[in-house]
Design brief:
two-stranded antiparallel sheet, 2 domains, Alpha-Beta Plaits
């Protein structure tokens, strides 16, 4: 009875983590405290690992905690903490409406598992996280929350606010729903349909065949301290445990459990009529299989050397060409003050290289951005940066006082900055195209760019017939995009932001004397 209680604990914790994670993505009113948000994000495996590589601090060591947890109890991360895992469990519950509800034992797909893991590791060594972006379970769940859950939540809020307002009640306020990135929505939709179908027909097949976190934790769980085992003396081989095993890891005929595939859902405890399934300590098998005297291989005792070498070679053969094809070449790897046609990266991203090598495209920054200037890229970073957020100044501009994206990023792609620091981080420089400006082309008064510039880097100077045109002071421009967003010319903007490959530190405008803005002395580049 005590062991069946484990499932209740697991269900409560998994739903708690899912609700908190979803709310982090859709919480436009910032109800959740920063400490609670960081506690939830701390336990996400891939973002924590990437953050730890850069910071090397305890605050970024959540993946180590997960590894220790796996060494003790198996893959509890997959059943309790991973939001995509809990989503799959919810979809699996829909199986009750199918005639054939039971699961079957599934053989391990080691060739697929280790080939995918090998490709991801090789790519990572080449500082390419393209495949990690596509398969990280937290990032995949984040795309679902951002592209589907968030608009739905906003729509419900706006409908409720409209109804309450008609009764002179103003507890809620309407929220602007900005346009969504069509490629990101299409990808998320296709993945969502795929994961629903896999959940309905194959249970946790994605976790045990595709997911790199599942494969990694599966290897670690082979030597975990506590394991689920079948008591041969009590087992009647009724098959009920196999029928509810969504990981397909129970072979009731042989009375064996493939614990590397077990996601610690504890469903088997509840259905066993003889209480023949125990959660107890077991001697850990070797990581590599050893053949018996007659040449036989014991049941699930590890990764065969031949399989391990074969999959590694497959990963090398298939991974390197893909990595080379997906990598976008960005010239000028020096640190001097240069610009390029590359997308503008958010304040705290340090450089385009730091950002694209750390960002897992979880879209958490996209969700929390109040102006929604952060939008998923398509091929702007090249194939390797698919869906990594970029600053889209046609959608909106970067709020001068906002630092939410730097506070929320779980992978360290956007490093934390203060409001004072953010105000001098130059992510790009505004460029003025005179011949398409409204003032020049239509010979009329404008000045929207100057009015919206928070640092007054864009100043209106005399031109013809008492008309004024913009002039950009690049020393104090921070590249926030307010001028580009405000510019009325279409389809091309008369003033736009060119990205800095490396972020720099702009000068602070001090005061205006005799029509000129005096600035502070030049400072060194921003010390992240």
């Amino acid at each position: 009875m005590q062991q069946t209680f484990l499932k209740k604990i697991r269900v409560v914790l998994s739903l708690l983590f899912l609700v908190l994670t979803v709310f982090i993505f859709i919480d436009f009113a910032q109800f959740l405290s920063a400490k609670l948000i960081h506690a939830v994000l701390f336990l996400q495996f891939i973002p924590s690992f990437l953050d730890f590589i850069h910071l090397f601090t305890v605050a970024a060591s959540g993946f180590i905690f997960i590894l220790i947890l796996t060494l003790l109890f198996g893959r509890v991360y997959c059943s309790t903490i991973c939001p995509l895992g809990t989503l799959q469990d919810i979809f699996i519950r829909l199986r009750r409406f199918r005639k054939k509800k039971s699961f079957k034992y599934q053989k391990s797909l080691r060739i697929i598992q280790y080939s995918i893991l090998a490709v991801i590791l090789i790519a990572f060594l080449f500082k390419n996280i393209f495949f990690l972006n596509l398969l990280d379970p937290f990032s995949l769940a984040g795309k679902i929350f951002t592209n589907f859950f968030r608009p739905l939540y906003y729509g419900i809020n706006n409908l409720a606010a409209s109804i309450l307002t008609s009764f002179d009640m103003y507890y809620l306020y309407p929220v602007t729903v900005y346009r969504l990135s069509l490629p990101a929505v299409i990808f998320t939709g296709l993945f969502s349909v795929t994961i629903i179908l896999l959940s309905l027909y194959r249970g946790r097949w994605f976790c045990n065949a595709i997911c790199p976190v599942g494969t990694t934790l599966g290897i670690v769980s082979k030597i975990s301290f506590f394991k689920i085992r079948i008591d041969a003396n009590s087992c009647t081989s009724c098959g009920l445990c196999m029928a509810v095993c969504k990981a397909g890891c129970i072979d009731y005929k042989k009375q064996k459990i493939n614990f590397s595939k077990c996601v610690a859902c504890f469903n088997c405890f509840k259905v066993c009529p003889e209480e023949g399934i125990k959660y107890t300590t077991l001697p850990s098998p070797p990581l590599f299989k050893e053949r018996g005297p007659g040449g036989e291989v014991p049941f699930d005792r590890g990764v065969p050397r031949r399989t391990f070498l074969k999959t590694t070679l497959i990963g090398l053969a298939g991974g390197i060409p893909l990595i080379a094809a997906s990598k976008k070449e960005i010239v000028n790897n020096e640190h001097p003050r240069t610009t390029s046609e590359s997308p503008v990266t958010p304040p705290g991203a340090v450089s385009i290289w730091h950002y694209t090598e750390k960002c897992t495209a979880c879209h958490l920054c996209v969700s929390v951005c109040p102006t929604k200037v952060l939008q998923p890229a398509f091929l702007e970073y090249g194939l390797t940066g698919l869906f990594q957020p970029r600053m889209d100044f046609h959608t909106n501009f970067c709020n001068f006082e906002c630092i939410l994206c730097s506070e929320i990023c779980p992978a360290g792609a956007i490093l934390p900055v203060t409001k004072d620091q953010k105000k001098t981080i130059q992510i790009g420089v505004s460029k003025f195209i005179k011949n398409i400006c409204v003032v020049v082309e239509k010979h009329t008064v404008c000045g929207a760019c100057s009015e919206h510039c928070p640092t007054k880097a864009v100043e209106m100077v005399p031109w013809l017939d008492n008309l004024k045109i913009p002039k950009v002071d690049e020393k104090i421009c921070v590249g926030c995009g307010a001028c580009e967003y405000a510019c009325p010319t279409k389809p091309d903007k008369a003033i736009y932001v060119e990205s800095n490959l490396y972020h720099h530190k702009a000068m602070k405008p001090l005061k205006k004397v005799e029509g000129q803005i005096k600035t502070s002395k030049p400072e060194e580049d921003f010390p992240f």
